[in-house]
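PROTEIN–LIGAND DATA SHEET

This sheet pairs a single protein chain with one bound small molecule, zinc ion, given as SMILES. Inputs appear in the order they were entered. The predicted three-dimensional arrangement of chain and ligand is reported afterwards as a token string under its own label.
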Amino acid sequence: MPLVTCPECGHRVSDAADACPNCGYPIAARMAWERARAGQPNPPPAPQPPPAPLQYQAPGPQWPTQRKQKGGCGCVGTVVTVIIILWVIGTCTAAVEQL
Ligand SMILES: [Zn+2]
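PREDICTION REPORTED AS:
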């Protein structure tokens, strides 16, 4: 039966003793605690914190850039106008030539 050193007074005490005969330190309880601590497996890893929820990505300030351009109608109108003018000029020219 091995002897252990009393952590309280340093007296050599049998590990089978319930308490230190010198100071009354509870050796048995201490030994039981040390055995329990030594036999305990490593504590399980701390649970990982849940991942942060994905932040909603609001559309940037370029959202309303896609607008229907009305320039096409303007171009068509300009072309039609030019064609009409040329037709009128051609008609006038033809009329003048007939004179
Ligand atoms: Zn002691």
